[in-house]
Design a protein that fits this description.
Blueprint (H helix, E strand, L loop, with lengths): L1 E6 L1 H4 L5 E3 L10 E6 L12 H10 L6 H28 L7 H15 L4 H18 L2 E3 L4 H5 L4 E5 H5 L5 E2 L5 E2 L6 H10 L8 H9 L10 E7 L7 E8 L5 E7 L1 H7 L4 H16 L3 E9 L14 E10 L6 H10 L3 E5 L4 H11 L5 E3 L5 H11 L3 H7 L2 E3 L3 H13 L4 E5 L5 H6 L2 E4 L5 H6 L2 E3 L5 H42 L5 H15 L18 H28 L2 H4 L7 E2 L2 E5 L4 H17 L1 H4 L12 H20 L11 H16 L3 H11 L1 H12 L12 H19 L2 H6 L4 H6 L4
Parallel strand pairs: 5-13, 5-16, 13-15, 14-15, 16-17, 17-18
Antiparallel strand pairs: 1-2, 1-3, 4-18, 6-12, 7-12, 8-9, 9-10, 10-11, 11-12, 19-20
Helix pairs in contact: 3-4, 3-19, 4-19, 4-20, 5-19, 8-9, 12-29, 15-16, 19-21, 20-23, 20-25, 21-23, 21-27, 23-25, 23-26, 25-26, 27-28
Length: about 750
Amino acid sequence: AENVKADQSAMTGESLPVSKEKGDLLYSGCVIKMGECEALVVATGPATFFGRAAALVDEGGPSNHFQIILVRIGLFCVGLITVFTVAIIVVMWPVFQYTFNRGINNVLVLLIGGVPIAMPTVLSVTMSVGAHSLAKFKAIVTRITAVEEMAGMDILCSDKTGTLTKNKLEINLDMLISYLKEYTIHDVMLMAARAARTENQDAIDFAIVNQLGDPSEARKDIKELHFMPFDPISKRTQITYVDEATGKTMRSSKGAPQVIRDLCKAEGEFKEDIDQAIDDFAGSGYRALGVCVAEVPEGTTSEELPDCDWTFIGMIPIYDPPRDDSAETIKKALDLGVQVKMITGDQLAIGKETARLLGMGTNMYNADILGAEKKREVEMTTGQTMAEVLEGCDGVAGVMPEDKYEIVKELIGNGHVVGMTGDGVNDAPALKRANIGVAVADATDAARSAADIVLTESGLSVIITAIIGARKIFQRMKNYALLATATTVRVVLSFSILIFAWQYDQPPFLVLLLALLNDGTIMTISTDRVQPSKVPDKWRLGEIFFVAITMGLYLTVSTLLFFHIVFETSFPQSLGLEAPWLDPESSDFRNPNAFMLHSLVYMQVSISGQALIFSTRSTTFWFMERPSVLLMLAFVTAQLICTFLGVYADFGFTQISGVGWGWAAFVWVYNLCWFVPIDIPKHFAKALLHPESWIRNRKDQFRGARRTDPYRRNSISSIGVDAARQRASIESTLTAQHRNSLNLTIQELEAKKYR
């Protein structure tokens, strides 16, 4: 091997090209940036570094959380339907002596009206529409259910190189050291640039030459005599040139600071100063580069080029700087209740310095804590499990692909919804294992194929938009789940009790029509206006079922009372409305299955059932959150169809007849009286489940505070003390300009018409 440098950042996450000597391993997939070599293949396929990473990817990601939720909601609804279906079967044939056809029709009513058959379609359409909206914000969704999981993400594990940083070396001129007064900072950089290649550059040469105002200045007014490229043995580069201004033959060299120090034969206090500077740079996460110059004795030809006396003139700090928007993105993530952890393959000192620049906190560990022996030692020392240690830290450095995979696995196993961002091959296994894998712009093909979401714009700022968008999508899905479950409870209970109490038989055709109009209206919920949660969302199915049962009972009571008033009392007749179910020859006989009664019950159930959507979509009161125009149009259209059918339909085969506009007005007024206080049972149920949160949030609303999800803890308590500390660290790091730019709140994102 001769002067070989390999860029393996896509494999290991290291910022700088790595020098390779005889006997070293070259990873399949790395890029040779300098030199040439002959290599012996010692591993292929799954035995390579890349292959091991691919094997971890093939182990599979997390289970389909969305499918599990669908199954649980479906089981609740089917269980309820089954119980009441069995009950009416037991009552209809043995007790009421129904005919077979009459009984089957009632069973169909419960099945058609109760089963939320459109749920998978509605939820999938909601996620698809949301994914299309996210694409407008440079976030391409490759796994549709990742949208639902992203709403619940509470930890974001981010790769450093290329994700939080630019993956582009820069010079920190503020920390550059010049040891001689006659050499300014610019002079030190110029001497370093002369000792760099101006073509076929490695990352360090590119950074140094381009740090000059004019890169051509590196060879301006000089005549190059000889250039010695970097090699792993000398660990430096060197140029010999003639200064055309003075006619002197000069040399300039840059390289490892210890090598440059020894080349200059530094001694005593000066050597101690150099060593201290090297330690300070390393402790701050910088790569140090020493620079020295020498004058070649007069009369020396270019063929001779003898050794000469070198002068150490300066030391240059090199680092991979954070992206311009990374600090702001991290703070916004914390505002949304998401912890951010740095997971990097770079050295611990470099990781800590990057974290310090981003204000993330520097409580970081080396990846060796994940080893079996070190893991036991850490757990015994701290009294915590490894998952708890990882929860409390700000990041882990020096990780390999299997380490990132293990970190994500530990956090998921401890009940967290974990997102992972990355761009390299080394990130692919963790991207696949995470609940939400996010491949940033310019990611490798391996990272993109393993990710659930691919960003097409540089930086992490688009993730904030994606999180807020995902939470809006989740809110729409939760609203529908509550509505569908409450509708099932209402339909099953209402028609079952009508059968038990009055032997009332609702025609299956009307229930089918009811289901079709409901589903058509509900489809528009995918574009509804919603207020996203300020903390990670979760499917609290116990709360959804309890609230749905409460609201379903409320509407059931409204239907039963309506039937009692219409069928058992003379109140409608006092308003001049006809009642054909009364036998004119016998005041004691009433026909519970008069065709007009079928129409009236259908209108009452349809109008009140679809109006329920305005309550379930609101976290406060139905009149405080404006629905989308499309939802309103769908509701109005469905109710016009329902009303005109009830007023004019006279189809004997469907057992319905028109009721006229007088009865239609009666139904609308009756439903309106029940609709106005419809949020009372909803808040009553939630107050029973979360009394302290409900009282606190009601006070906040009356004080004019900004609305949040009333039944969640505040964002600080939900993400813990570590995230609060992380937030404080970032706020102390951001400049005033950064703080001013943080005004892009949820409201402003909504002003950008993210719907």
